[in-house]
Design brief:
Among the domains are: about 5-100, Immunoglobulin-like (Sandwich); about 110-220, Sandwich (Immunoglobulin-like); about 630-735, Golgi alpha-mannosidase II (Immunoglobulin-like). The chain is about 25% helix and about 25% strand. The chain is built from 17 helices and 36 strands. An 8-stranded parallel barrel has the order 17-18-21-24-25-26-27-28. A hairpin with a 7-residue loop joins strand 29 (about 635-640) and strand 30. The longest helix is centred in the C-terminal third of the chain and has 19 residues, at about 600-620. It starts with 6 loop residues before the first helix and ends with a strand. GO terms for molecular function: 1,4-alpha-glucan branching enzyme activity; cation binding; hydrolase activity, hydrolyzing O-glycosyl compounds. Its EC number is 2.4.1.18.
Length: about 725
Amino acid sequence: MDQWINWVEYDELLEGRHNAPHNLLGLHSFGRGQVLTVYRPEAERVFITDMSGKNELELEEIGEGSGFFGKYIPRKNYRAPYKVKVQYSENDVIEYVDPYCFEPQIGDEDLYYFAEGKHYEIYKKLGAHPMTINGVKGTYFAVWAPHARAVSVAGSFNMWDGRLHHMRTLQVSGVYELFIPGVEPGAIYKYQILTRTGEVLMKADPYANCSELRPANASVVADISGFKWNDTKWMREREKKDRNTLRKEPMAIYEVHIGSWHKKDDGTEDGFYTYREMAPMLAEYVKKMGYTHVELMGIAEHPFDGSWGYQVTGYYAPTRRYGSPRDFMYFVDYMHEKGIHVILDWVPAHFPKDEHGLGRFDGQPLYEHPDPRRGEHPHWGTYIFNYGKREVENFLIANGLFWLKEFHVDGLRVDAVASMLYLDYGKDDGEWLPNEKGGNENYDAINLFRHMNEQFEKQCPGTEIIAEESTAWAGVTSPVSMNGLGFLFKWNMGWMNDFLEYMKLDPYFRANNHGKLTFSMQYAYSENFIQVLSHDEVVHGKGSMIEKMPGEYEDKFANLRTAYGFMYGHPGKKLLFMGQEFAQFREWSEKRSLDWELLDYDMHQKMQAYVRELNKLYEKYDAMYVNDCEPIGFEWMSCDNANMSTVSFVRRGSSAKEQLLFICNFTPVQYEEYRTGVPCAGEYTKILSSDDEKFGGTGVNVKKVVKAEKIECEKKEYSIELNLPPMSVTVFKFDYK
């Protein structure tokens, strides 16, 4: 016995400190014979059989009450795989295939590329993966925990006893792995981690594809392979598109929080619809309203509803609140069937400190930066990823690719980009650490974005990667080859802030703030922008869009129609948060459904009809989108008429045909015989007036067709005269001559 047992390893195993249990457990050749060992605490007797249940051999317990059983046999009678029969008592006997007779499924090449930060499908190796090895069905578990003293799998399949399934570390990678036969999809598990200081942690799997429904937080084994997709044509067409193509396509985005768009009135606490139930409802509405894209607020697994999905614990798992991973696949597939693009909000900026999550994962800072001046947001109470660590970089880049490839998602809106780019973002003096040159730029985050966007574009062409970046950082949407960050689009936060401040003003004061309306065109082509009126603007006491508007009841609606009309005319793709299309009065809350009952009221119905008409025109006339990112697509006709608070401008499309003239009046005053310059002679045909009675307006008569006159106005050779409605946007189409 002394010859075939390493007593140091024996002690480590019994003390739960062994990180290479396959050295001691399982089937081993020894001399001309074999050694068979099993560790099963509390067992009375242990037997080994072949896979047919024959050739039974009883093992001997080595050390009274140790739970360690073994035997040397002078012949090589057994081969892997084989079965273990454990008798706890006369009537309590279990059988299983020994986990310690299987080779690793992660190779040297996997470990090398992971350490380099370039294993772009690492999620197929780490995590929990149902598979069959040597004819045996089970689940392969693998986790990265380089600071751990030992790691075990504990779950519903082993009575949450971490002693039963110790994992093996691979080389010096910090990766632990174990194949456990018999574990099927639906099994619940965590990793039991023994830290260097002797603390025992129970952690959810960072690469898990499914989780328990909160407040439970264990990981769930899921098989996400084999889903029957019906969007082959969609994906093939997507792959043909490049950056230039995407910049010229229409994007009218409907931003949605799945849990509160509609709730069931069935008496349940949450009232959530599943992904499958939501898909046809949402698709029908989005198509009816004329949107081209849906953008889903955070659906990666998160513990707290009130975080709206922006404090993530399960980066590789669609939240269980609305169903299974396959249910979410169905959702995306259904949207594609109806011609709707799906964008996900994605959060690589920070993560919460929940005990089961990524924080201090193996007892030390692992995913987060170890220096709190780099690794924590003091005012958010969250950890910041260590972007300079290659395995963390790999975790994030592979995660983005995971959603784009495995779930066929069409784009990612990257949250809080500014907080990643600036080391001092949201921090006071003494709370941040400068870079090596003494500045506040985060070089590691910059490199991450460039690496990330290069791979997204290379591996998932045609996808739309969008930065929520709130500063004037240069080159956010410039290609990496031009030293940019490589995003395709950027949220236009500057426009949003200025424009909303302008719209909140009583019209009397707008004349003195005219620059807030027009300044955005000074930088409109510095990036590829999306004009956004997002969820961030209708929470935390900011009021809904309709509530921001000044005046009495009908004045508010007139202001909002004018605001939306100007937004759709302004260069840049479009995004509007749910509920604002029908002028929801209450601030949004994730705790309740949108106030759909407001559509019983005339003005709300008409506002919804107006937004639907804007989307209809947006899709019909490419002047509203094809040259969003090119100076040729826009020209001021009048931008200096501050006293009257009016502006007019032209949007140009792909040809001289069907160009558009927008005339905006931001006062409640009707201007008769209003004249504005136009770009050419010819007829100007009205296609929209926000003041139309069918939209809730006053119905001021505007001629259907207005002919340009050769009368100079605002330095334009030609001009038109019309009866300009109060608080309105009027749109004409014309052919350039």
